[in-house]
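Dear colleague,

Thank you for sharing your sequence with our group. We've completed the structure prediction you requested, and as agreed, I am returning the results in plain text so they can be pasted directly into your records. Please verify that the sequence below matches your submission; if there's any discrepancy, let me know and we will rerun it promptly.
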Amino acid sequence: MNEVFKNIKSRRSVRSFTAQSISKEDLVQIAEAGAWAPTGNNRQSFRFTILGREKIEALANVVGAQIGDLAYDFYKPAALILVSNDRGNSNGLADCACALQNIFLYAHSIGVGSVWINQFKLICDEAPVRAALGQIGIPAEHIVWGVAALGYAEQKNVTEPPRKAVIHFVE
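Please find the predicted structure tokens below.
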């Protein structure tokens, strides 16, 4: 089987991480994998903001207060990559989704676990959240469409659940 397809089939969402850190070099490469994603009209207007544990905890407190879950913690990852895009880009969500898929697949290929965090697309313009995003350098004209929580998996999930997608071939 093709190595890329093996990687696609074996990647799983990880929601329990060890305390082990990820090297800065690996985090930069993971984000760079996202930057090579296709974009509508080749605009490449997304931004990748990488946070370590200290900043994650502060941001989790703001998000948790906003969503009414004071124990919210992004699953306690070693790092987060917030993927944002210019709100004027009509392809922003799709561009960020492609970038996140590249991030997840590359991270998995080097042994780093990941899970998609989805809350920001709904709350990123709430005043406290927007203020926190501004403090970490995300421009006001950007929407955070998705976040990759990254770390080393506490347990290896080797099961391959069945796929429910319908593949319909028409000749």
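Summary note from our side: The domain at 15-151 is CATH 3.40.109.10 (NADH Oxidase).

Kind regards,
the structure core
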